[in-house]
Amino acid sequence: MHTTGKINKTQLIIALCIIVLIVVFGKLLSETNNKLTLYLITGVVLGYILSRSRYGFAGGIKRIYVTGEGSLTKVLLIMFAVTMVASAGIQWAAVAKDAVPQFRAASSDLVIPGSDSVQMLNISTILGGLFFGIGMMLAGGCASGTLSDLGEGEIRSAIALPFFALFAIPGHALRHVIADSEIGKIGAQVYLPDVFGFIGTIIVSFALLLVLYVITRKYEDFRKKEGFYQETVFEPNEQPLPEDKDFKLFSYNTYHKFFIERWSFLKGGMLLSIGFIFVLNTTGKNWGVTSAFTKLGVKIVNFFGIEITSPAFTSIVKDVNAGLLYDAGTLRNFGIVIGAALCMLLAGNFRFNFDFKFKDAVYYAIGGALMGFGSRLAGGCNLGALYSAISSFSLSGWGFLVALWLGGIVALKMFEGKVNIIPPNRYKQKTKAS
User: Is residue 119 scored above 50 in pLDDT?
Assistant: First the structure.
């Protein structure tokens, strides 16, 4: 164990080699386009943050349901609030220059940064959220969580990922079919500042977040009174070490503080907020994951000689033919996997986890398929359709949140104890609150 003060030199050397390779790869990318290197490095940083803080959107539902402890849920709400304020400043400044939301923009108009996340709230959003919520519980993580878990050596994510990518294709196709149908036109595409103004939108959004925060606290109190509550406990090697009387830069304690000690959910959430705003500022678009998964799915079927000619896939096929190494989303996703791996390697905690049965693998595959189908049906995942949408003041984000929550709870109740990532019924054993 790391409490003995020993650094895992083998994993450290591997991490340093990967860093060198990333630098070389980034240099090669910069010879084509400097932005490609930026996308890669951004992904590496985001992946590192996700793993170092054990942060995930799926955990916001699963953790509080299983343990009764809502620290991650509350931090997610705080992260949304912080990002909203930053996004409001960026978008307000753009509106002052006569920019308009993307869905109303003509070819000559300036577009409000991040307004690509303002989607239609209709049956696609609701059904997609339900499917995605179920899938992320079966697969053990959301879209970004699947990538970071893969980097950490979780083989279940390697099972879920190809099914995620492949089933994103029919989800994307069905979304376009519904959008062109009469039922798809039932709903609303609402950019909240159009209704309330920016100040009013912040007030309304904060009020909704406050309601969710109160519900979370009330539920925690209920679980404590019932005696079914567990505090979050870090692994022994992830806990802070006692401070040395005399600070030494080159010591195990310093290494542990910089590379091993686990970051709190709050630190992870705040750093991810900064990362989100960085992506928005450097690309003009919000952070998303699953659009690149659709391109990966198309690439996979192309490998088997299947060509997709539907007009709904025109831009996707064009990007695939240009090469996924030149795609911003794909590079960022690849960076997330590498960043998570580096986090585990630098801490000496990397390992391949094969601890599951064939039955579990089937569930992981189904979960990946449901996430892929649901995310593209809804036009995004926990990032694109939820975090990015709510932070960019789209009504659709709130609708997706409700559907996602319902899907997650349904999966937890239906499959509790049946998949090794969903613990047995929490009411079989009492864990009294400390």
Answer: yes
2 pLDDT tier (thresholds 50, 70, 90): very low
Above 50 in pLDDT, residue 1? no
Count CB atoms within 10 A of the CB of residue 85.
14
H-assigned helices in 227-260: 252-255
> What was the pLDDT predicted at 248?
81
Instruction: Give tens-digit pLDDT for 58-76.
Output: 889 999 998 999 999 999 9
**Dist CA 171 CA 27 (whole Å):** 36
Interacting residues of 2 by C-beta distance below 8 A, sequence separation 6+: 8, 237, 256, 260, 347, 348
Answer yes or no: are the C-beta atoms of 393 and 118 closer than 8 Å: yes
The H or E element spanning position 23 is helix 9-30
Tell me 323's DSSP state. Answer: -
Which neighbouring-strand residues pair with 100? Answer: 111
Structure tokens belonging to residue 324: 């996924």
DSSP code of 172? H
Question: Two tokens at 249?
Answer: 């830069």
Which stretch of DSSP H or E encloses residue 28? helix 9-30
Residue 171 pLDDT > 50, yes or no? Answer: yes
By the 8 A CB rule, do 172 and 128 touch?
Answer: no
For the chain, give the number of residues. Answer: 434
Distance between CA atoms of 131 and 138, rounded to whole angstroms? 11
Find the DSSP H helices in 53-122.
59-67, 71-96
Torsion-angle region of 69 (φ positive above 0: left; ψ -120 to 50: alpha; else: beta):
beta
The strand pairing partners of 121, in sequence order, are 188
Distance between CA atoms of residues 343 and 258, nearest Å: 11
Query: In one letter, which amino acid is 24?
Result: V
Radius of gyration (C-alpha) of the chain in whole angstroms:
22
Cβ 169 vs Cβ 374: under 8 Å: no
- Burial of residue 410 (number of CB atoms within 10 Å: 0-12, 13-18, 19+): middle
Q: How far is CA 386 from the centre of its chain?
A: 10
**pTM exceeds 0.90 for this model:** yes
From the number of C-beta atoms within 10 Å of its C-beta (0-12, 13-18, 19+), residue 376 rates as buried
